[in-house]
Design a protein that fits this description.
Elements: E1 26-30, H1 41-50, E2 55-59, H2 65-75, E3 80-84, H3 89-98, E4 103-104, H4 110-119, E5 123-124, E6 126-127, H5 130-138, E7 143-146, H6 154-162, E8 169-172, H7 181-185, E9 193-195, H8 201-205, H9 209-220
Parallel strand pairs: 1-2, 1-9, 2-3, 4-5, 6-7, 7-8
Helix pairs in contact: 1-9, 2-3, 3-4
Amino acid sequence: MAAMTDAPAPPIPSAPLPSVLALGPVLPVVVLDGGADPAEAIPLARALVAGGLRGVEITLRTADALEAVRRVAAEVPRAVVGAGTVLTARQAVAARDAGARFLVSPGWTDRLLTAAREAGLPLLPGVSTASEVMALLERGVEEMKFFPARAAGGPAYLQALASPLPRARFCPTGGVGPDSAADYLTLPNVPCVGGSWMLPPEAVRARDWGRIERLAREAARLGAGGPAGTGEGGGDVSAGDRCR
């Protein structure tokens, strides 16, 4: 396994986070296996950041996910860690207390919006219809998660929303991979995409952090206008702070 270095990087803005969508062209979605040691999230997050992806969404789908958020927040200062699959107000508060800087949800309710605001954290609420987008715009929310992106209509659907709903900006997640990410990122209302293709399960199980860093670097190239690619090479870039 290749060794990684934690080279100097631009300072991360202090809370509150101005915009989740400005963290980079790709938001990695981390789903820890049940029973996995939450401490393994630390080298995983370091690999993502070293590759140019400093935003890290850890989904709250396993019992130890909050502990993983806590570990990354405490031990990987260059990462901006957030909690995904947030469904309740209680989870929003627990994620904030664990050190999460942002929240992501597959959908939204007024109670969840209120909880996120009271916690002082930006929330990417999930939407899949124009009516849901309009309802969030009425509530002052302009940044949203488009989920499940592929099943809900993909790039063509978001392109159709751009003209009638120009204030809404999206992070498509769900079925997004290196073969489709660039199609989303060419749209005027899509600053970034979410996905887990840079975290192959076999690489995570093998603790192959060098491979994950290489895949993260390829994903970060999207922010510099580079090709998505499906290989694992790619040159050295510093696109983690840029977003199309």
